[in-house]
Amino acid sequence: MIHFYFHPTPNPAKVSLFLEEAGLDYEVVPVDTSKGQQHDPAFRKINPNGKVPAIVDFDGPDGRAATVFDSTAILIYLAEKTGRFLGRPQDRPQLLSWLLFLGTGLGPFSGQAVHFQYAAPAGLDYAVNRYRREAERHYQVLDGHLAGRTFIVGDEYTIADMSAWGWLDRAPKVLKGATDPWASYPNIRRWFEGIDARPAAARARKVGSDIEFKKVNDEETRRALFPSNFPPAA
């Protein structure tokens, strides 16, 4: 059994897709980040960085519980545990390269683009432009790579595709104001539609849909999500 610490955001979505593709036995443990539950001491023992997703695999190596945080680390761990979605051995260098491109580039720049376009105070035009343009640049790199390809790495569906699906699903929000977010990225469009048509993707979208997460964006939420913007409590 796997405990899956979850909030309905792009990085947990990647893990949801793997769990559904692999048919693993798991239990969703909600972490309402808008209420600050990611900062609770009990959760910080699981992820000291205070972010979702995280998992506790009670059937880890040698029968011991294994705790893993960070979506890329979780995907690699689960793929190695199950022996699935790792592609061919000869493709492993490219798999690692693209996983890190997604995990340290496309994902974070997309997240910052969303933050500065929707949540930051007005007047930060430089930051808005910087992160939006970097998100678009990462899209361009991936779109060029996908020309003539069905999957990101080699000829097989891998955890690289799962990782990219999580954030690219939010393209309409990342590319704020774009009537068609895929207009400039036809290879991503084709690739995304193929991944999104998989039955497991539909199931992954439903993960946590029966849980009521806070949706009000008030001061409690802002303090929970962006604590560094507020002075420490006296």
From TrEMBL:
UniProt domain GST C-terminal: residue ranges: 88-225
UniProt-listed InterPro entries: Glutathione-S-Trfase_C-like (IPR010987), Glutathione-S-Trfase_C_sf (IPR036282), Glutathione_S-Trfase (IPR040079), Glutathione_S-Trfase_N (IPR004045), Thioredoxin-like_sf (IPR036249)
Domain GST N-terminal: residue ranges: 1-86
Gene3D superfamilies, per database record: 1.20.1050.10, Glutaredoxin
Domain of life: Bacteria
Official protein name in the record: Glutathione S-transferase N-terminal domain-containing protein
